[in-house]
What does this fold into?
Amino acid sequence: MPAEIIDGRLLAAQIYGETLAAVERLKGRGVMPGLAVILVGEDPPSKVYVANKEKMARQLGFHSVLKQLPATTSEAELLAEIDALNADPSIHGLLVQSPLPKPLREETMWERIAPAKDVDGFHPMNLGRLAVGQPCLVACTPAGVIEMLVRSGVTIAGKHAVIVGRSIRVGRPLQLLLSLKSKTGDATVTVCHSRTPDIGAFTRQADILIAAIGQPRFVKADMVKPGAVVIDVGINSVPDATKKSGSRLVGDVDFDAVKEVASKISPVPGGVGLMTIAMLMKNTVKACGDLNPAAP
Ligand SMILES: NC(=O)c1ccc[n+]([C@@H]2O[C@H](COP(=O)([O-])OP(=O)(O)OC[C@H]3O[C@@H](n4cnc5c(N)ncnc54)[C@H](OP(=O)(O)O)[C@@H]3O)[C@@H](O)[C@H]2O)c1
It folds into this structure.
């Protein structure tokens, strides 16, 4: 039987509904969540992501600020912009859109953003707090993957989760989240990467398989245990002559073949990407001090 498709749109809509309710509560206390995004340069996909983030922030009634800077911006200039937004009391969440034009370094910017406003969750303080199981702002894509699993009724505790990819954006925080002694953790976690020989030998053992490597359709059906839950984080543009644009988006999983083996699978597009933006909005509310948006 083909896998159940995990509908990112539906799950993201649930999170937006909860976030909207939290925004109303905050406004009742005189707080309007403020989200600032710094975009450096003219990278077309980044412009689309940022526009989507801004649109959603406005729909939720946030104060939304977009700082567009030229690709020639120096490190000192970018750091000064971050400092100004760190000091702005109307801004609760702040992120610098990646990728940055060379020679700017993302890591330098991550460390400059005030940890309390770090809605991307990449500051070493937030990653460190995550590692020790303390409350913190968690990176949006990994947090979105956990929400996807939980809201789809997948039991994580006691399962073997295999993550392919170990980046700071996705694989590393996900490894921490899934292995934490917590309600949404307690899995046994294996992390594979570019130096892992015979990745299929590991992925075939996964009850929960998460692909986050940026290689189109890398995970084939024979790499998946029958009945596994498969979450595809990858977003890859591949040529497609039937499209006006000449290309289309695919994930890191060979969706059509793997859906015949898995029990549940997230699609691309329509999967994790939508959760990521929803979690960014949720994190912005969390950054306002309302640590539990679901609380009455
Ligand atoms: N859906 C979303 O919202 C969202 C958010 C973020 C990223 N993404 C997508 O997720 C994918 C990964 O993003 P990222 O930022 O984590 O990428 P990244 O920083 O480039 O990291 C890629 C990871 O995959 C590993 N890897 C690359 N090729 C591999 C291979 N052939 N076999 C095994 N491991 C391999 C790398 O190993 P090494 O560490 O050994 O180099 C690295 O750990 C991309 O397609 C990206 O567009 C989607």
Q: What stands out?
A: The chain has ten helices and eleven strands. The pocket of NAP is lined by residues 141, 164-167, 169-171, 192-195, 199, 212-215, 233-236, 272-273, 276 (CB under 6 Å). The radius of gyration is 19 Å.
